[in-house]
Amino acid sequence: MIIAVASGKGGTGKTTIATALALAAERPVLFLDCDVEEPNAFLYLKPELTVRRPVYRPVPEVDEEACTSCGRCVDACAYHALLALGKTVVVLKHMCHGCGACAIACPTGALRETSHETGYVEAGRAGAITFAHGELGIGEAMAPPVIRAVKEMYPDWEGTCIIDAPPGTACPVLEAVRGSDFCLLVSEPTPFGLHDLRRMVEVARALNLACGVIINRCDLGDDRVERYCREEGLPVLLRIPYLPEVARWGAEAISFVARLESWKTQMAALLSRVEEMLGGDRGHQR
Amino acid sequence: MEIAVISGKGGTGKTTVAALLGVYAAPVVMVDADVDAANLALLLQPRIVTEEPFYGGRVARIDAAQCNLCGSCEDVCRFGAVAGGVVNPLLCEGCGACYHVCPVGAIVLEPSPDGCLYGAEGPYGPVVHAELSVGRGNSGKLVTAVRQRAREMAGRGGIAWTIIDGPPGTGCPVIAAVSRVDLALVVTEPTRAAFHDLERVVDVVNHFGVQVAVCINRYDLHPEFRAAILDYCRAAGLPVVGELPTVLEASRALVAEKPLCALMQTKLALMCAQMWRKIKGLVVEATACEPV
Q: Among A190-194, B213-217, B249-253, whose mean pLDDT is lowest?
């Protein structure tokens, strides 16, 4: 069973909830931090990272002897990553999406794809938790290849897997949550929280994912998120009030379930409830 | 002059800070560059004047009448967007590899409706915001389009300042939001996670050669991390232009009927006035030093 924790809006408590679920789980879980632009879960789970691998994406290289300067590759590139300069073709690596269209369009086979390092993935263990995360290189624009690499670290995992998704509703989020069985949406009871929750629900629905909502800092706002969930038939699985001590522990990246036994029980119950909603442990589908 | 407000980590208060700075920068063009979770307009409540569709790229469509189901498109697609002779528009990146490889010319590339761009009139100048269609991948291009529109509005109205409310993260929309701005204001918090993200996003901004200033929000949350962030900024030569306390009324202000007015009643308002003076000073000084 794969549960993705997402929110649309940043800072609603995705990582806090995702790590709390992993720490409260009664069985060993796999934790994948898919926020590769700003990975933070390792700060909470403190895994011993024993594996580190670079992530590459394909970029073209021009064989100047074979190139006839016909310009077809430049026309074929949808991302303006190829530039004709006089008789040579220049590759702008940071613009390239690695689609391979240029190599297909080249009539003389002058374009060869090489690997460009775009980030890395790391994996290891934190107690009973198997952990993986990735980091997008500085100045690199595209997160999806690194997210894909994180999700491919443990292809044979059979048990429960928790995915910590990035904020937003664009392609990195899509890449992180697709293939999950359930989307746990963390919101807050403000116009910002509601607006971004609505968008995230649209994403989940476009991907045919079942969802449930957690309202964090439920006492710092009004009832608009509750009303929306009722209207849309979305189950509100948990309401968490604002607790200054939880905010302080959060600052130190200490999970609240490590300090408050009652919340550990609640998070474990939440995990069981999601499992029940999905009709038992369905195993891993990617 | 363009100021981008970013953070690395989400939820540190970018939108609130951007809106309050705007009050003192007026007349100012306000830009929401967080196009996949745009919130600035919820705070400023501007009157929308123009609305136009945004086509950021292309999306492939297979004409079933001509397709012979040879599967070559499926083989070349690196995004897993083609299956059984049908394109999933959510996964298609519009690269055209399938179009080039199709032996019977059954694939057409159509403009992809990636979102909507709004021009609006706000309380202290024009507001430009946008909404990316759900799950679309052209967020960086939409950010660039939003900034382009903002520049036109600034030019037309003779408005000197533009404040850009940026997205979280370090990837393509962030790069599009900070490229060639006069200053990037990074809003952080004294937490382990936000500090980690601050260091990463500062590296990204430096990579693109943009001047950085830092604002520590909720500075009273954790004295040790606050001290650590101040030490880091001193060592890295980053000016800390403001420190804002935890103000729970600010969260509650967001649900008021007039959220900006409610926010102006909090003590954050005066602190942002001081912060704006420092930011303005930094930008004017840097501009004056530029070789002609």
A: B249-253
Neighboring chain B residues of A250 at a CB cutoff of 8 Å: 191
Q: What is the pLDDT of residue A285?
A: 41
Question: Alpha-carbon distance B262 to B257, whole Å?
Answer: 9
Q: Where are the domains of chain A?
A: 2-29+159-277, 57-117
Choose among A11, A98, A206: nearest Cβ to B10. A11
What is the average pLDDT value for chain A, to the nearest integer?
94
Q: Do A101 and B96 touch (CB under 8 A)?
A: yes
Q: Tell me which of A59, A82, A171 to substitute to probe the interface with B (most B C-beta atoms closer than 10 Å).
A: A171
Q: How many CA atoms lie within 13 A of A203 on its CB side?
A: 38
| ipTM score | 0.93
pTM of the predicted model, to two decimals?
0.94
pLDDT of A196 higher than 60: yes
Which residues 3-42 of chain A have a CB within 8 Å of chain B? 8-12, 15, 35, 37-38, 40
Q: Domain A2-29+159-277 carries which CATH code?
A: 3.40.50.300
Record: fold of B56-113: Alpha-Beta Plaits (3.30.70)
> What is the reported pLDDT for B143?
96
Instruction: Tell me the DSSP string of A111-172.
Output: EEEEEEEEEEEEEEEETTEEEEEEEEPTT----HHHHHHHHTS-TT--S-EEEEPPSSSSHH
